[in-house]
Amino acid sequence: MDLLTIHGITIPLSQDEVSPIIWQSLTCGSYEAKEAKWVCKAVRPHDRVLELGTGLGVITSLIAKVPDVQVWSFEANPSTATLARRVIDANDLGNVVLIPGLLAAGEPRTSSFYVREDLWMSSMDKNQGPYQREISLTSANIDEFISDHSINVLVMDIEGAEKDLLGRSELLGIERVFLELHDHLYGLSGIREIMQALAEKGFAYDPRGSYGACVLFAKEHGLRAYEPEVF
């Protein structure tokens, strides 16, 4: 097993545990680089964060390093959740609750999840590309989870499922939503639907915490001090 470091996070991983593309992105430092740079614009000390789509746990670990933050993270792919647990433990992060499973809007329902060689391509979309296997997952209600755990920040990278979730959930108590958009799956019309759904819930696009497909929506009022852009 190799011991990699990316974005300041220790990753104990063997090359044969991920696809060649994932391994290359890890060793060259590009793995989730945009998310790693911008997610800390969304998360602040003392936040209670719900993350959907743990992946290898790199972004999870970065969030958890923010002072006095508590993180609950859901990963639908059981094998990926096992790798993420290893990464979180290697970074000695006791403020993370990692949950293998699925949160969705509305009543619990059973859905198909398609596991692909490149873990970041695994999703609920059968038409996204060739897959290795299909598994069945029964969702829990996201709004109930948010209420039960007093969540105030939502972070997600769930390969297109964000459109349905953000459109159908209430997100009561959430102050900030940070997500990666997947316009290649639902087009600009899908992005419009996401932005309209969040606007109806009182969120505004926040350019101070957004870059490209990584976007922040916030409910905050008033002005903040000017922050010059750093690229």
Molecular structure report:
- This is FkbM family methyltransferase.
- It comes from Phyllobacterium endophyticum.
- By secondary structure, the chain is of the alpha/beta class.
- It has a single domain, classed as Vaccinia Virus protein VP39 (Rossmann fold).
- Helices cover 29% and strands 28% of the residues.
- The chain has seven helices and 13 strands.
- The chain has helices spanning 20-28, 33-38, 58-64, 78-90, 142-148, 162-168, 183-200; strands spanning 2-6, 9-13, 48-52, 70-75, 96-100, 103-104, 110-115, 133-138, 140-141, 153-156, 176-180, 204-211, 214-218.
- The strands form four sheets. A seven-stranded mixed beta sheet has the order 5-4-3-10-11-13-12.
- The chain starts with a strand and ends in a 13-residue tail after the last strand.
